[in-house]
Structures are given as C-alpha cells and as structure tokens.
Design a protein that fits this description.
CATH superfamily: Ribonuclease Z/Hydroxyacylglutathione hydrolase-like
Radius of gyration: 19 Å
CATH architecture: 4-Layer Sandwich
Strand content: 15-25%
Order of helices and strands: HEHHHEEEEEHEHHHEE
Number of domains: 1
Largest sheet: 5 strands, mixed
Number of strands: 9
Mean pLDDT: 89
Structural class: alpha/beta
Low-confidence stretches: 1-10
Helix content: 40-55%
Strand order of the largest sheet: 3-4-5-6-7
Shape: globular
C-alpha cells in the first residue's frame, strides 16, 4: 500500500548488523536511546494488542499483528547521542541535525548546508507517504507534530533530497506541499465518513486502505487512521465516544 513505510524494527535491525560488521559508531537522537532500549529490549505485546482491540480490530487479528511486529531486537551496546541543532561531520563536510517528529517521535534528518543535501530519512519521500500512526508508546497527536515539522523543513536550502526509501529527488518544497495536501484530503474524507455514520478507527481505516492487506498492514492502517481521527478531535471536528470500543463521530 502507498502508506505505511516499513516498521522501525527493520531499520534498527539493519543498523545493528551494520555496526557489527563495520565497527562504525551508531548515533540516535538523545531521547531515542532509552526509548529504543525500553521498547525493543523486552517488548510487551499487551499494550499493543489492547490499543488495536480498543479501536475496533478483532482480538485474534490484533494478537497476530502484535506477535509479528513486537519481537525483541538486539541493539548495539554503545549508541551515541545526537541533539537537535548540533553539527556532525559527514564526508569531509558537516550536517546539521534537525528533529523531525511524525513517523517517529525522535526521528531526525540531516541537512548538509555546504553541499545543499538533505538526508531525509522517512520524513519526506517521493511517491509514498510515511506512516504517521498513533501507537501505545508514541506521544499524543503525531499527525499535528508531523505537519508542524514538515512546515519547519520547508524552505531549507536544498538541491537534492536523499530519503530513507525510494528515489532521490530535488523539489523539497513541492513534495512537502503534496504531503500536506494529501493529509488535508485524508482528514476531509475521514471527517465526511464519521459524519455519515459514527465508526471505530478500524472501520474507518477500511475506507482509504482497501484491498487484500496482511494483518501487519492492517495494524499500520489502523494506527495511521487513528492519528488522523485524533487530529480531527484536536481540531474540534470530531469527538471520541469512549466505551469497550472507541467510536468517533463528527463534532
């Protein structure tokens, strides 16, 4: 599907393997280090299953999704901290660390000002949109933080963008505009859907995320839908009706 770029554990697993082979140091945003060790060192599937079930996914499907997505990962013993605004050496030059939350709370991108490059991670990609989802461990309202960080990235002096997935591209501001339009359209469509009939996040997710999706993909679709519905609540356009299953209705 177009949304839901691969889970963070794939990237972390690759980092661990690369560090073992190359002996290269591993860097993360300072806040990500204890978070990653807590999340992946001894994963507890319970909160993840509870979130999915609470928002309408059948329990058996939720348990299958959690089992597939919440396996433990062996992280490097030493991880060095990065802080927003500092510069790090890269290929004979320097790149500035920019905190870009949304896809992940502690995601960073690197701006090589001298060579006018942006190492964009999963923040801005061409042809696909990053999964911005509400998960048990994320801070509230990830879509609001993503849209804010997109706006802060607009206007950087960049000639080439190197994303974490897909082809490199040049028009950073143009792609940011497309992403903002996409989320605006998605919010409008979900607002219209719950205006026609109140539904759970799982039910709403079956509108934009159609087709024969795996259980894993369905979990990502639900998390992304929930982030959009929470954003509508934040903006006063929807209400969440609490119960055994949370139901969203238009405000």
């Amino acid at each position: 599907m177009a949304e839901g770029v691969g889970p963070a554990e794939v990237a972390l697993q690759g980092v661990g393997e690369a560090a073992e082979v190359s002996a290269a140091p591993v860097f993360m945003m300072e806040g990500e280090i204890p978070f990653a060790r807590r999340l992946w060192g001894s994963p507890d599937e319970g909160p993840f299953v509870a979130l999915l079930v609470r928002h309408g996914m059948p329990r058996g499907m939720a348990e299958t999704a959690a089992g597939a997505m919440r396996g433990g990962l062996r992280l490097p013993e030493e991880i060095l901290p990065l802080r927003a605004g500092e510069k790090v050496p890269m290929g004979g030059g320097w790149a500035r660390v920019i905190h870009a939350p949304g896809h992940a709370d502690h995601q960073l991108v690197l701006h090589d000002e001298g060579r006018r490059l942006l190492y964009a991670a999963d923040h801005v990609m061409l042809g696909i949109t990053p999964n911005v989802g509400t998960w048990p461990e994320t801070e509230p309202y990830p879509l609001a933080r993503y849209l804010e960080s997109l706006g802060a990235t607009r206007g950087l002096e960049v000639d080439l963008v190197l994303p974490g997935h897909g082809p490199v591209f040049r028009d950073l501001d143009g792609r940011i505009g497309e992403l903002m339009d996409h989320h605006g359209e998605r919010l409008g469509a979900m607002r219209a859907r719950i205006g026609a009939a109140p539904e759970s996040a799982y039910e709403v997710s079956r509108g934009p995320f159609r087709g024969a999706l795996t259980v894993h993909q369905r979990a990502f679709a639900l998390a992304e839908t929930l982030a959009h519905l929470d954003h509508l609540v934040l903006e006063g356009q929807a209400r969440a009706r609490e119960g055994a299953t949370v139901i969203f209705e238009a405000a």
